[in-house]
């Protein structure tokens, strides 16, 4: 008999993402932003955003060929930044 617990966990994760998306949409907030928009928000280059994504500081998803940054990961990244330079 096959173990489908892995699929159940994925299904639960997708369900939670859908619920979060529904709440965000009801509040009129964006869930995803383009790399360029993310760069503008952080006042850095798009290249720097790609580096941050590749290093795991933020998460992104692909929709077709577009890479979009999750607002949740952007907020967590900014919240974790030091207030002053060392």
Q: DSSP strand (E) fraction? A: 5-15%
Encode the helix/strand succession as letters.
HEHHEEH
Q: Which regions are unreliable across 5 or more consecutive residues at pLDDT < 50?
A: none
Molecular shape: globular
Strand order of the largest sheet: 1-3-2
Helix content: 55-70%
Largest sheet: 3 strands, antiparallel
| Secondary-structure arrangement, i.e. CATH architecture of the largest domain | Orthogonal Bundle
Using only C-alpha atoms, the radius of gyration works out to 16 Å
Domain count: 2
Based on secondary structure, the structural category is alpha+beta
Give short descriptive properties of this protein.
86 residues, alpha+beta, 2 domains
Describe the structure.
It is built from four helices and three strands. With 86 residues, the protein is an alpha+beta fold. It folds into two domains: 29 residues; 56 residues, Arc Repressor Mutant, subunit A (Orthogonal Bundle), CATH 1.10.10. Strand 2 and strand 3 form a beta hairpin. Helix 2 crosses helix 3. The radius of gyration is 16 Å and the shape is globular.
Q: Topology of this structure?
A:
Elements: H1 5-26, E1 32-34, H2 35-42, H3 46-54, E2 60-63, E3 66-70, H4 71-79
Antiparallel strand pairs: 1-3, 2-3
Helix pairs in contact: 2-3
Quick structural summary:
This protein is of the alpha+beta class and 86 residues long. The protein has helices at 5-26, 35-42, 46-54, 71-79, and strands at 32-34, 60-63, 66-70.
